């Protein structure tokens, strides 16, 4: 009975975290062009709530961290609050770490098909980080004043 109740609670927590995560993504998708600051704040809040329920070693933690970072960078582009960039970099670093741990666990378990999926995710993370750096470079050059 005790294990069954625990498993049911785990399933309910996962259902709720997935719903929060999906809602945050749908808010961003629906209001992508242009996204309002209010909707973006709501999406970031929901991403954080979902992330709280996806503690390590949750298999979707890295995805949640990546999407939170993307939303924070988008908010930075609207507000120029560098704390959003700082938080986005921390989220990306934590996401990369979570993904590496997951890949190592899958390698140890010999789960090749899931390992291939995670390897692709790791590649996508690399692309995200490259895009993040490129965006920072462009924002930096845009915000620099030409010499007088």
Overall number of strands: 0
Write the element-wise H/E pattern from the N-terminal end onward.
HHHHH
Q: How would you state the average pLDDT, rounded?
A: 77
Gross morphology is globular
Instruction: Return residue spans where pLDDT drops below 50 for at least 5 consecutive residues.
Output: 1-6
Percentage beta strand: under 5%
State Rg. Answer: 18 Å
Q: What is the count of DSSP helices, taking H or I runs of 4+ residues? A: 5
Broad CATH class? Mainly Alpha
Architecture in CATH?
Answer: Alpha Horseshoe
Distance between the termini: 75 Å
Largest sheet: none
Task: Specify the structural class.
Answer: mainly alpha
